[in-house]
Amino acid sequence: GAGVSQSPSNKVTEKGKDVELRCDPISGHTALYWYRQSLGQGLEFLIYFQGNSAPDKSGLPSDRFSAERTGGSVSTLTIQRTQQEDSAVYLCASSPRGLAGGRSYNEQFFGPGTRLTVL
Amino acid sequence: KNEVEQSPQNLTAQEGEFITINCSYSVGISALHWLQQHPGGGIVSLFMLSSGKKKHGRLIATINIQEKHSSLHITASHPRDSAVYICAVEIQGSNYKLTFGKGTLLTVNP
Fold first, then answer.
1. How many angstroms separate the CA atoms of B67 and B4, rounded?
2. CA atoms of A10 and A45, how far apart (whole Å)
3. How far is CA A74 from CA A6, A23, A83, in A?
4. B35-74 pLDDT, tens per residue?
5. Which of A11, A25, A113, B87 is 20 to 30 A from A5 in CA distance terms?
6. Is the pLDDT reported for residue B106 higher than 80?
7. Distances (CA, A) of B37 to B61, B92, B97
8. Quick one: DSSP state of residue B3?
């Protein structure tokens, strides 16, 4: 079946411009996560959605970053007034967040990422 | 100090060798994940475990909750195993988000 998809795969933008990154999770997955992978920083959490609500936005680095999710499916991460330090690979993951054998099941399925370069 | 520490950072092995990558964490967790990332590639989930041991093909993952330690083993390593292996934890009460180690770059030479 289809996995998590992200678009665009690459985005080059000029400092100060706004960008939108899209994530299509696996159908039926209720949980969706955005992560960022920067050179030398490793992977870091940005925001988590359960359905359409975002109970945890603690990883968003500044108020230039926002995200939304509609219909319990597609999510968009928006970065306003991009800065060079925003250059990174932005990864989306989805999870069924179901139960298996009475235990919480949270295997996360990652998309291929969007490589953002801010010039 | 990072909440998740991996060792070694880099590992070079000859084809056929038994490989161990270690992960230690300093917080209470609900689960631990092992992920694989090939150069220029996406991230694949290898294991999610909260106790004991799991095996998938040539890969084995173990966790000791009391010692806050997990290991990923690869038996009969192959050049196609060359990748970055990342340990990540779900910290208790953290909405299941992942906190990541810095990864171990494994190179298996033929």
1. 13
2. 20
3. 10, 6, 25
4. 999 887 789 999 999 999 999 999 999 999 999 999 999 9
5. B87
6. yes
7. 17, 25, 18
8. S
Residues of A in contact with B97 (CB under 8 A): 33, 45, 48, 56, 59
How many residues are present in chain A? 119
Give the closest-approach CA distance of B45 to chain A in angstroms.
7
| A31/B94 touch (CB, cutoff 8 Å), yes or no | no
Residues of A in contact with B100 (CB under 8 A): 42-44
* Average pLDDT estimate for A79-84: 97
Q: How far is A94 from chain B (nearest CA, A)?
A: 11
Look up residue B88 and give its two tokens: 């990540």
Could you give the CA distance from residue B1 to residue A106 in angstroms, rounded to a whole number?
26
In angstroms, the CA B32 to CA B49 distance is 5
pLDDT band of residue A42 (cuts 50, 70, 90) is confident
- Answer whether residue A97 shows pLDDT above 80: no
Distance CA A22, CA A114 (A): 9
- Are B76 and B58 spatial neighbours (Cβ–Cβ below 8 Å)? yes
